Amino acid sequence: MTAPRVVVLGAGPAGLTAAYALAKRGIAVTVLEADPEYVGGISRTIRYKGFYFDIGGHRFFSKSKAVEDLWTEILGDDFLERPRSSRIYYGGKFFSYPLKAGEALSNLGVLEAVRCVASYGLARLMPHPSPKSFEDWVVNQFGRRLFEIFFKTYTEKVWGMPCSEISADWAAQRIKGLSLWTAVQNALFPRREPKDRTAVIKTLIDSFRYPRLGPGMMWEAAATKVKAMGGAVLLGRHATSLAWDAASATWTVACGEERFRGTHVISSAPIRELFAGLTPAPGPLAAKAAAALRYRDFITVALILKERDAFDDNWIYIHDPGVKVGRVQNFKSWSPQMVPDPSLACYGLEYFCFEGDGTWTSADADLIALATRELIQLGLAQPGDVVDGCVVRQRKAYPVYDDAYAANVATVREAIARDYPNLHLVGRNGMHKYNNQDHAMMTALLTVENIVAGRETWDVWRVNQDAEYHEEGEAGGETGLRSVPGRVKA
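Above: the chain sequence. Below: its structure as tokens.
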């Protein structure tokens, strides 16, 4: 059998995990990354005048021992143990997340709390028989009033569409098991975090690991190790076409005038872009399905401001329709080493948008001014506090779970299985699946196992499929990750 040579598209968590696992086995691997400066994809860390900040927040916690061990293997002692803290801003007040029963009662008031409990009881007695939308699913789980308070505004900011048009799959994947009873139970009877991290409900963890200088530190270390083992990690290479030659059983990936050849391609690139460059061209049904997949983009406005200890959460969800910002990060709470001057703070305000819309095309100065106004409006800064700012636009941050996405992904998968041998999809955008970075890593690790075995011994598409990993359910299975599948039966 010909020794595999692998071309990896994308140097995010999935792509670099695949490259690292391949290089450790002595398999020739080349990673092509479009970004000219950073590795890490959405998990990269931006550097600005000595400050470090994330594109979103990335807690390093997994029920998979294999993933936890891999993080330790790559980064060693450069992890910090950080306290977990998140809150929800609603109606001018802050609510701990997960909810604390006494605090929620006090903030909402007795009448509103009674309405929430009554609404929850009604939903349990008369649930929607076949929930298809995010709204249907959440109302079934929490009741309509809690849906309106704690889910509707923020979710519609994130996705830019009504909750009634978002697939229930997204709710099931992201918040399964976090019922009103679970939230109240854990508020009244808090669990002590066990030594075995794989046994903890993810939403309720008290602490997590985090690289000293942000998640990009992990992926920069991974890239360095891949190169030290003989692999290549090439930046500024945007793959424009992928051609399969059946006669030689070889893929050729074009990046401008450069050509990269391999027996396998592992792609974490967005499916829509991947299929636009395939040769032979996909059939009309597959091409249409890939082109129909949608993505949500977002902007991080990092503000450097005077430290007033306004909040120490990792992030705050903004459930207030009076401002555009959806979430506010406090990067010093992730790691104090990300902010070089202790007299200053660095907050990241996240604005969800579509590439090309009015928010996306706003001038950086206008976005910094907007973020400054809204931070003051939320009571998290005072006039004159902000001393500098930086804007980062992130394309295709989230795969959209609309009514048609599942059928479109299924059509794409069928086309790959039929027409494109040795083309493997991994990661969030590569699979059009809202995976966290540890899920993305697991899809890469299992894909490498399949390549080494020369056949599909693991069903990569079942990683995170049953959603129990996210919020509840005990760890288990061969890998120690509840939602990682068992081996494919021969």
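The longest helix spans residues 437-453.
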